């Protein structure tokens, strides 16, 4: 017993000490491609029920969480393919990235708090309570989708695409031309989108029923990255970087609801 403790300590130190410098010298891990499981694998039972409820709220947000929504968007309007599409801030990438520090509020946020933020800004609504059904179901859907994803390893397509820095000043005049040629067909020349039979077919990209000025997409760089990889719908990565920047600058120059943090 007298020899046991010091020996254990030596072993512990011996195994820990040399690790630190080696780990510091290592290359950062390369990003891994992750594919979430198909919906058909959502299990039966109470957990599966919560996941399916989360998916419904995600794709038909106005119908299933209407009291928290203040515009014509759904979560899927931006998190495409039911939250599965790489470079459209997929839910499988989100689950394994939280808690995370955010400069937006200068604190370490949990996933539920991050989702509250999208309700407040991207959905121009109000934050559902953290412990309530709405947030719990969306967190469950995100958790299920991330099943099997490695934690602490970067995944290809997490978050939005980061545009490489541009040397030109984004030009809304060229952006307007790009918008007319590549976007107006669906989102309307007036940016207000289009409905059919009371359902939103194409969401508004500006105006009173779109995301507000505090949302992530209200930043030109983030919007350019979203557009570059995802728009025109199903023709992602067909615009040049320059056109993606310019059309983002044009969309961003149009009116939208104010940032709720700036209202008196
Ligand atoms: C107008 C577009 C838009 C809408 C609508 C929207 N979001 Fe987001 N969401 C974003 C953007 C932009 C980000 C930031 C992604 C980044 O910074 O990489 C984000 C981030 C997130 C994240 C964190 C992702 C990550 O990888 O860090 C989650 C989770 C999320 N949103 C959930 C939701 C939910 C749930 C809804 C519906 C209630 C919703 N969002 C509606 C644009 C939107
Ligand atoms: C073929 C139709 C189509 C075209 C063309 C198209 N979009 Fe979209 N866009 C959509 C649809 C549909 C969604 C919502 C996706 C969903 O709900 O699954 C969307 C979502 C968006 C969003 C996020 C939600 C919102 O309303 O703000 C933005 C921003 C956007 N598109 C910008 C553009 C821009 C810029 C272009 C041109 C470069 C473009 N789109 C071209 C159909 C289109």
UniProtKB/TrEMBL annotation:
Gene3D superfamilies linked to this entry: Cytochrome c-like domain
| Protein keywords | Heme, Iron, Metal-binding, Signal
- Does 4Fe-4S appear among the keywords? no
The Cytochrome c domain is annotated at 49-146, 170-255
Q: Name one GO molecular function term.
A: electron transfer activity
Q: Which InterPro entries match?
A: Cyt_c-like_dom (IPR009056), Cyt_c-like_dom_sf (IPR036909), Cytochrome_c-type_DH (IPR051459)
Q: Would you indicate the residue range of the signal peptide?
A: 1-25
Q: Which organism's genome codes for this protein?
A: Leptospirillum ferrodiazotrophum
Q: Which Pfam families match?
A: Cytochrome_CBB3, SoxA-TsdA_cyt-c
Report the protein name in the record: Cytochrome c, class I
Q: Which PANTHER family match?
A: BLL4482 PROTEIN-RELATED, CYTOCHROME C DOMAIN-CONTAINING PROTEIN
């Amino acid at each position: 017993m007298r020899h046991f403790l010091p020996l254990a300590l030596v072993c512990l130190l011996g195994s820990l000490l040399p690790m630190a410098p080696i780990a510091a010298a290592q290359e950062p891990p390369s990003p891994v491609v992750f594919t979430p499981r198909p919906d058909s694998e959502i299990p039966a039972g109470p957990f599966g029920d919560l996941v399916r409820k989360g998916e419904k709220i995600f794709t038909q947000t106005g119908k299933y969480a209407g009291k928290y929504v203040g515009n014509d968007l759904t979560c899927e309007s931006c998190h495409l393919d039911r939250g599965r599409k790489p470079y459209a801030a997929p839910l499988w990438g989100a689950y394994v990235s939280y808690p995370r520090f955010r400069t937006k509020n200068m604190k370490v946020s949990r996933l539920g708090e991050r989702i509250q933020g999208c309700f407040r800004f991207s959905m121009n609504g109000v934050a559902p309570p953290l412990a309530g059904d709405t947030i719990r179901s969306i967190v469950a859907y995100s958790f299920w989708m991330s099943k099997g994803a490695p934690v602490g390893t970067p995944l290809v397509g997490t978050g939005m695409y980061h545009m490489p820095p541009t040397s030109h000043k984004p030009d809304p005049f060229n952006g307007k031309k790009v918008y007319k040629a590549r976007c107006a067909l669906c989102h309307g020349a007036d940016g207000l989108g289009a409905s059919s039979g009371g359902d939103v077919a194409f969401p508004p990209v500006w105006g009173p029923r779109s995301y507000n000025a505090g949302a992530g997409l209200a930043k030109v760089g983030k919007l350019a990255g979203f557009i570059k990889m995802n728009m025109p719908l199903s023709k992602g990565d067909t615009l040049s970087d320059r056109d993606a920047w310019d059309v983002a600058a044009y969309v961003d120059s149009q009116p939208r609801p104010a940032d709720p943090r700036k209202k008196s």
